[in-house]
Amino acid sequence: MRFLLSIIIFIAISLCAFSQPIELMPQVGNPYWTDSIPASMRRSYISYGEQYLGKSWTVLPWTVFAENKITGNRVNYEAICFEKRRQLAALVMAEIMENEGRFMPDIINGLGAFCEETWWGIPAHYGKRIPLTNNQEVDLFNAETANLIVWSAYMLRPQLDKFSPDVWTRIKTEIKHRILEPALQRNYWWKTAGMNWNPWICSNWLSCVLLCEDNAEQKQQAIDQIKKATQAFIDAYPEDGGCDEGPGYWDRAAASMFETLYWLKQVGIDVPITNKMRNMAAYVYKTYIGNDYCVNFADAHDNRTLQQVNVVYPFGVFLGDKTMSQFAAYLGKQKDILNNAARLYDKSGNFPTLSRELIFLRHIKKFITEQAQEPHQPNVWLPNLQIMTARRGNLFVAMKGGTNGESHNHNDVGSFIVYADNEPLLIDIGVGEYTAQTFSASRYDIWTMQSDYHNLPKINGISEKDGKQYSAKVIEHNNGKLTLDIAGAYPEEAKVKSWQRSLSVNKKVINITEKYELAEYQQPSQLMFITTTKPEVYAGKVMLGAHSISFDAQQMTAEIEDISQHLDPLLQRVWGKQMYRIILTINSKANKNTIKYNIR
Fold first, then answer.
1. Helix or strand or coil: residue 198?
2. Radius of gyration of the chain, Cα coordinates, nearest whole angstrom
3. pLDDT at 346
4. Residue partners of 130: CB distance under 8 A and separation at least 6
5. Rounded distance, CA 285 to CA 294, Å?
6. Which of 71, 175, 408, 422 is most open to solvent, judged by the fewest CB atoms within 10 Å of its CB?
7. Distance separating alpha carbons of residues 556 and 127, to the nearest angstrom
8. Confidence band (pLDDT; 50, 70, 90) for 345?
9. How far apart are alpha carbons 267 and 235 in whole angstroms?
């Protein structure tokens, strides 16, 4: 009886604790925002917000929403949608920093405009041509918008209540209908996924739960589900912490996991930090090249790290990872964050994540005193993903094995990239603007997904094939050297028994050997290389500015293809308007052969 009574009392206390108001962040008017945030940062936020003063709130057009189902285009709607969200975040940050009520009329009207939107997500994640009130799917951007709205309302609650307490009531109603109920009640696939959807949604869902859920029992159920989903995400990750979606998605994979863990800790729920989780965090600096560039395998929309400052720093502090914290301080110094904080808004992939900015600013005093240092890792080896990076003098190389069944996969098993003086020389193109085709059965009809447009062989006229079974085998790895057999990445019609690609680097030269055996010769095999530097062909040499690819002119013949016409606006923004493919055709018809060449 006493034991039963103890359990009842414990449950009652727990439910009572979750029903109490939670103060996760100092609200507007708290001295923290004037006493702790440098005046230069406050001016930056205020100045950025001023551009939106008096600007009307866009009504998102159904015809543009429908384009994704009609033509496959998704970027037109996303551009309008994300800018509207950027507008709200900018106004809210400006008001927090100024606290004079100057931005409040626009914010109040903005919150009203969001409440009147039928659905907060994007058409690529929706089954209908137009959004429907009774179809509240929980996708990435439905959750992200909910996070933005609840944090906006929470931070400005004192001023909103002066205008009308019904604003908060209306927002809670919308959050319950759009996020809290469907996320808790439905068995969504992303709750067990090992990729970005899981933590990206869970981190945003958790904010809504902590700030808006009044029912203590449902709050506990939601937190339990979020913890379970987060653990499923962690469990699915390889022990080396490698993000097979590429560094571009790390920002919404491991980094969003951190946000979930951070907010859980704020309400007294500690999740033990494991070595795997530390490796997941370290991936962001292990794949850093220099001059703001990072390794960009898979669906990378960009190869820069600018928008990650506001999550890399608190993540590093959370883990006690000094390399990570100092890396963030370096990025912040390079981008002059203390004087131009709102610059992050212009470069963020989608729109500013308000809660991330707030977490970062809670650490600003420590950030200001943090030593800034680039994480120049001389050697990195991620055995599960089969990714090697090596830095020697002014040369940086990254090479990958793995499979062609990875998340956001490109057919790129065995590809490598080269940077010289921290500038791209041989590149991974990444991905252009997302369309309906990008995630359809015809994904690999898109040129950027194909091995022909990576730094890879075309064997007997045959390209790599998509699927997890198409993979590499590690033959040898030493610091600065990797040998892979990539024959397994090609289908049977390539008639290849083995293709051992070996790469090694020293301070002046990168040596590559292609040792292969074919079951039969069908047509000349070719080596492809992608560059944005205009190549010049000479006997046994392709010049790339001050650098060169040197080879035996008896073994191979070089030609250059201008592929600039394939670049869409996104790729032009990342790489410029010029891109070339170097094609080295192997002259020998022998079934066994060894080709050696170097880059210097």
1. helix
2. 26
3. 65
4. 62, 65, 66, 118
5. 8
6. 71
7. 51
8. low
9. 23
